[in-house]
Automatic annotation (TrEMBL):
Its EC number is 2.7.7.9. Homooctamer. Belongs to the UDPGP type 1 family. It catalyses: alpha-D-glucose 1-phosphate + UTP + H(+) = UDP-alpha-D-glucose + diphosphate. One of its GO terms (biological process) is UDP-alpha-D-glucose metabolic process. The keyword Kinase does not apply. The keyword Transferase applies. PANTHER family: PTHR43511. Substrate binds at H193. UTP binds at K97, Q160, G192, D223, K366. This is UTP--glucose-1-phosphate uridylyltransferase.
Amino acid sequence: AQYSAQSEAVSWIRCIPTFISRKDFDGFKEIFHRFLQVKGPAVDWAKINRPPEDSIQPYEKIKTKGLPENIAASLNKLAVVKLNGGLGTSMGCKGPKSLISVRNENTFLDLTVQQIEHLNKTFNADVPLVLMNSFNTDEDTKKILQKYKHHRVNIHTFNQSRYPRINKESLLPIAKNMGMNGENGEAWYPPGHGDIYASFANCGLLDKLLAEGKEYIFVSNIDNLGATVDLFILHHLMSQPADRRCEFIMEVTDKTRADVKGGTLIQYENHLRLLEIAQVPKAHVDEFKSVTKFKIFNTNNLWISLPAIKRLQEQNAMELEIIVNPKTLDGGLNVIQLETAVGAAIKSFNNALGVNVPRSRFLPVKTSSDLLLVMSNLYSLDAGSLTMSKKREFPSTPHVKLGSSFTKVQEFLSRFESIPDMLELDHLTVSGDVTFGKNVSLKGTVIIIANHGDRIDIPAGAMLENKIVSGNLRILDH
């Protein structure tokens, strides 16, 4: 049965109509063939070693080099790539996640454009912004780009591939035809951000940027508000001798209990390699999550050499580990998506390096709990960049856990008349039907639990310090 599924699926790929990207299907065919051939776990646990000391440099060491006199010369060799393929559905929003407002009516995309425009103006440089969209986000993103016409930043877009979802049992594509509508809407998926290398080369942007004298791209997730262009890391890359050019830097940061699922760097068969939780044999998952054995995790802020991408693409030498992502569709059908991760390519590049950066460079907004933090007075906004307020006495961010009543952005916003003062907050847990009045201040550890059927209104001007609030508290207009 396995063999017939294999041959049927492959013949299905061969007879694709030419109006769908041929390169997409070549890419899918390659990953699908590899998937069928792989037997057993992706990694041999016994071969995993900690990376050598010098393969992960502390950020402070890189910073000691200082900055060159001509920063513009380095910036002019850089392009910024933001991964913009995701939707805002997990936060209850339609359309691209990058169009959600996160601070003072600014979206993720607004903040990104402001950051790069500020760089270009400050140093009289030309750093372009490149957005890697997916078929889910491309149309809406392109519409909104009109508003940045008069900003001092050149914006390019390209689309990552579109691959067919596979029936978990038969291993056959579930698509009935090549369309994207109706019952076929769920038949396709963007195959993870590891697709960046092929898509970037296929669309011609790689050659275009090389022709413009660009040497490196800085790649990051668009929802990581800490992923700004770091001039010290850029200078480190530019100042390497030509014969020892570092072709790939992965920014890592110290793991906390909140990051146990994050990918980590390992030494494997004499190469630096990214190990994702999906690749870990079940028996070793707890060991992988350990903060003592694997002390750092990948922020997905990556600095990658453009000539090296060109070389590896031409040689077809980048074999990224396959992540098998199981999904259950609305009708209950079990499918699999074959994906790859952009950081997994680190093993293919010469003189690759991890840089252990401050936690401030990892500020992702995945949930409404994260959104509350970045909207609050814990952070100040300057030229599109968020920095921890100087009024906060210690650098760690509070641990915030909002319940299911806050999951969707619109509902979340309706529960706060204004965002509370959180400068002295350590921990906040909110569960149930809870609302906050204006000018509330939260300090220390605050736990607010409204039981089912109850409601708690935190009154305007309230100051809660090391408090547990439970039961029922209604404030009614008189």
